[in-house]
Amino acid sequence: MTKKVLVTGATGRTGSLVVKKLQSDDYGWQVISFARSKSKAEEIFTNTENFIFGNILSLEDVSIALQGCQSLIILTSAVPKMITPPSEGKPPEFNFEENGKPEEVDWLGQKNQIDAGKKAGVEHIILVGSMGGTNENHPLNRLGKGNILIWKRKAEQYLIDSGIDYTIIRAGGLLDKPDGKRELLVGKDDEFITSPIDGIPTSIPRGDVANMVIQALNSPFARNKAFDLISKPESEDNTSISIDWDELFKLA
């Protein structure tokens, strides 16, 4: 019997990549996509047949979407919006849309998803977060006074304490660059930030994060791991990189 996975945040820039990759290749999973906006989903995908539309702040909506699913991939995240551009030496100002603040999306919304997953008997939850969460004074926390990394870390700990098998991927800065062209590095608790490696920025293409998420579905070595993820710079000859995913998860 084909296993089912629910992907939330399916119309986001990383979430849509995960959905498209799962749809286009035989990973052994039927993907159900969860999003808030039907019109946005129709813009991104030619077929929204396996979409369920709802709100992650509604436990009922998420519970309905999770029926029959063995795994859950959480790719929802609050998105800061610039409301005032930088000028005369002043930094830009940011805010969040209504019902889109980090406390609501990255804490309450993710808590809802974890609670619904536990209720539905989900066996494995993969959560994509962000590096930088060990530093409460990280600049990202000041955007719109949202404390986004603080709320993300609270949700991560809630997942760890839930008793459900988990994989928490704390990605570096996300790049809209080709995936499969870079060696990936895993680390712990922001070590790439506090002890940077010469010549290696703390960033990674979105597609490589999507690949890591998908590989975590089937690798037993990805279970009950929380780790940081960045990539080395792309090689000059632009060759594809072969990755032993199980070995990478073992290092995490």
List keywords for this structure.
two-stranded antiparallel sheet, 12 strands, alpha/beta
What can be said about this structure in brief?
The chain is α/β, with parallel strands linked by helices. The chain has helices at about 15-25, 40-45, 60-65, 100-120, 140, 150-160, 190-195, 205-220, 245-250, and strands at about 5-10, 30-35, 50-55, 70-75, 80-85, 95, 125-130, 165-170, 175, 185, 205, 225-230.
The percent range for helix content is: 25-40%
For the largest beta-sheet, the strand count, sense and barrel status come to:
8 strands, mixed
Q: What class, by secondary structure content?
A: alpha/beta
Radius of gyration: 18 Å
The number of helical segments is 9
Order of helices and strands: EHEHEHEEEHEHHEEEHEHEH
User: Which segments are poorly predicted (pLDDT under 50) over 5 or more consecutive residues?
Assistant: none
Q: Based on DSSP secondary structure assignment, what is the total number of beta strands?
A: 12
Note the gap between the termini: 30 Å
Overall mean pLDDT score? Answer: 96
Query: What share of residues are in beta strands?
Result: 15-25%
